[in-house]
Amino acid sequence: MTQIKTAVIKSLKIATNMSEETIAFTGSLWINGKKAADLKNDGQGGANFAWFTDKELEKAFDAYCESLPPEPQTDEWAIERGLDAMSMDSDLWISLEVARIEEAQYWKRKCAKAMCIILKRHKEGQFIQYKGWPYTTGAAKVIRKKHGDDLLEIVNERFI
Question: Looking at residue 10, what DSSP letter applies?
Fold first, then answer.
């Protein structure tokens, strides 16, 4: 069986206008530096579709994903009900990776011409965007001084 050293989603196109219950997307899965599968989700809440070029590689990828640690619950509803962590599988891995890439794209757009910060007192999804004040190390010093211990993150620093 093929040993999975790297697995990366490339050519990801997210269709936010089609995303209802899940992220609608198309993309490709690259394993060990080679294209292994075309990926798709129609955004209607169903599973991800993966069309592998090689059945043995698909089995190896499934086994690789199942060997990864479980994913902790982050959904408030699930946490309140004491649901356990979700066992990792290839469908969950693809969903998590697409969501991670989508979040990075979101923040890159927000940080392109502004400084974005998250404070400890902010609720999930809240942040401050200083429009017209692009990130510099000098500006970051001013922000750190202004917000002190309440500053959780200067989001722009994810991309330097």
Answer: E
